[in-house]
Specification:
Distance between the termini: 42 Å
Shape: globular
CATH topology of the largest domain: Rossmann fold
Number of helices: 11
CATH superfamily of the largest domain: HUPs
Bound molecules: pantoate
Helix content: 40-55%
InterPro entries: Cyt_trans-like, Pantoate_ligase, Pantoate_ligase_C, Rossmann-like_a/b/a_fold
Enzyme class: ligase
Subunit structure: Homodimer.
Strand content: 15-25%
Binding site for beta-alanine: 61
Mean pLDDT: 97
Active site: 37 (proton donor)
Low-confidence stretches: none
Length: 282
């Protein structure tokens, strides 16, 4: 398996494939690889000639220094997991300097307001950091298709917008959320949870499913009231937000409207770890 830490060497390695018009599937990650990431890789392998995965904890998308410091970094284990899936995967694991070239700042993006909602509102600057790193990675790797998990659904929509606005010829593929057997959405952050908290966190998806039923039978406010009450009695959790939004605009819904697709988004904290999840509603 080839592992590159320098973009110049990665570009040199990819050049012949690009010239031969081979398709490249790209899976950008921040590491702490889990089955969700491996499912993205598998889909990329099914659909492309060449597969590149990046592993980089991007400092410009963290608005909280402690969160950045605590983010799991498990490169050796990650490489073993990737190699066990396929030794043909090309890994790019750059240093901050290699990718930011001495200028570790986020560019400003116009996402037509998609970044004013939810994660954008609660984590100022986050999506400029995401856009900055993903654009840099796209320019280096020049993928045909790029794969992102729907767990970060707002990120997925924002990357689609960034690609459209920058006229990048990249197919952005959204992949279904991969869950533990108890329903907990797989996330690198789960690494920081105790076994007990992982068990308890099954409550998040159960609550989302119940909220979905209420949304279908009744309306937005009923689902919202249910989730608020449910988390009030679960003192291990702190509910940061539960929002029902239109999938296209990500604007918060007040009442159900015909011909719109809705999704419920949730952020909760347990043991000081911020967990994010979402579910389609119709
Ligand atoms: O979803 C992630 O892991 C990150 O936000 C991404 C897309 C790799 C950019 O750093």
């Amino acid at each position: 398996m080839k592992v590159f830490h320098a973009q110049s060497q990665l570009k040199q390695h990819l050049q012949p494939f690009l010239q031969a018009k081979q398709t490249t599937g790209f899976v950008p990650t921040m590491g702490a690889i889990h089955k969700g990431h491996l499912s993205l890789l598998q889909q990329a392998m099914n659909e492309n000639d060449v597969i590149v995965m990046s592993i980089f904890v991007n400092p410009t998308q963290f608005n909280n220094a402690e969160d950045l410091e605590k983010y799991p970094r498990t490169l050796q284990k990650d490489l073993e997991l990737i190699e066990a899936l396929s030794n043909k995967i090309i890994v790019y694991a750059p240093t901050v300097d290699d990718i930011y070239e001495g200028n570790t700042v986020a560019q400003n993006f116009d996402y037509d307001g998609l970044d004013n909602e939810m994660e954008g509102a609660n984590r100022p600057g986050h999506f400029n950091g995401v856009g900055t790193i993903v654009k840099k990675l796209f320019e280096i790797v020049q993928p045909t298709k790029a794969y992102f998990g729907e767990k970060d659904f707002q990120q997925l929509q924002i990357i689609r917008k960034m690609v459209e606005k920058n006229n990048m010829k990249i197919d952005v593929v959204g992949c279904p959320i991969f869950r533990e057997a108890n329903g907990l959405a797989m996330s690198s952050r789960n690494e920081r949870l105790s076994v007990q908290a992982k068990d308890k966190a099954a409550f998040i998806y159960k609550t989302l499913q119940a909220a979905k039923d209420l949304f279908i039978e009744k309306d937005v406010k009923d689902a919202q009231a249910f989730v608020k009450t449910a988390f009030e009695s679960e003192t291990d959790f702190t509910l940061e937000y539960f929002i029902i939004a239109d999938e296209a605009s990500l604007k918060t819904a007040i009442v159900k409207e015909k011909n719109k697709n809705y999704r419920a988004f949730i952020v909760v904290h347990i043991e000081g770890v911020r967990l994010i999840d979402n579910i389609t509603l119709n």
